[in-house]
Amino acid sequence: MNEAIDIASLPSTSPGQVVLRVENLVTELRTTRGVVRAVDNVSFDLRAGETLGLVGESGSGKSLTCLSILRLLPEGIGRVAGGRVTCDGVDLVSLDEDAMRQYRGRRVSIILQDPMTSLNPVLTIGDQVGEGVRLYRGLKGKPLRDKIVDLLRRMRIPAPETRVDAYPHEMSGGMRQRVGGAIAVSGTPAVLIADEPTTALDATVQAQYLALLRDVQRREGLAILFVTHDFGIVANMCDRVAVMYAGRIVELAPVRELFDTPAHPYTEALLRSVPDLDVDVERLYSIEGQPPALHALPKGCAFAPRCPVAHGKCLAEPPPMFETGPGQRAACWKHEKNG
After folding, report:
1. 3 has a pLDDT exceeding 70
2. pTM of this prediction?
3. What is the phi/psi pair of residue 82, to 5°?
4. For residue 304, which of 283, 324, 329, 334 has the smallest C-alpha distance?
5. Contacts with 297 (C-beta within 8 Å, 6 or more apart), sequence order
6. What domains can you pick out in the chain, each with its CATH number?
7. Cα–Cα distance, 27 to 39 (Å, whole number)
């Protein structure tokens, strides 16, 4: 058993302080074709007040990385097989489940993709937002209800005094997503993981929701790990970006450098895939081929079969991360001279 930790007594974080450190994280999944590495030696830091974007095609390992941090992998199918996830100086991977519950929601929280499936349809909004408030703040009765209403108001949900008694199906998609945000911040976490929270929202509601997240981040000093496919969101929300492919981070860079000077061919291809409304083309660009099956990864670089500049070494040996500029690293053999 791990020793109980009084999280409430921990000092508050200061801007720029590393609040989450992921080191060589490995996650394995049991499949019909055997055990595969769905997250393969992923490493990054996340600082207070910072937003780190996590991008890549579907199946690249973004959501599994998030679930691995919180240890919410499907039981009997997924497991963290190696590495460290450090919060408050404590390795979350090594904690037993009772100790992990002190961190999940309280220090590291998550907004899931689809609030219609993540919210319980038979419980009121107040019941679901209030669960974290009861657990983390010890409130009950009128103080509990007042705090729930306050959280809904902070997430800009209209008429929170009446919405507290509503059910998820009585609210729009945008309002449900805001309820998910209220649940996520109910424990005043240091780290907020947002796993494609705008996927089901139209453009106008999406812009409002992103502005709301930025406002909450400024007010609370949150560090945000933002998973998305949308490079427009990356440009507007993120300070740095990690690009994932086949379970690995292939590039990590400040957002401006990523757009101006992408260092990995996969990043270049992703950016070329974003339509330019000012350019008239007959056919939109797409990346040729498909991401590799995790049970049959290429011997060398996983992107090599789709890469226009791949050469012999790319096919034979997976590249390490090379420094390519200030704060920018990429796993590509074309940068070997920088190693």
Report:
1. no
2. 0.91
3. 180, 165
4. 334
5. 246
6. 18-275+285-300+319-338 (3.40.50.300)
7. 5
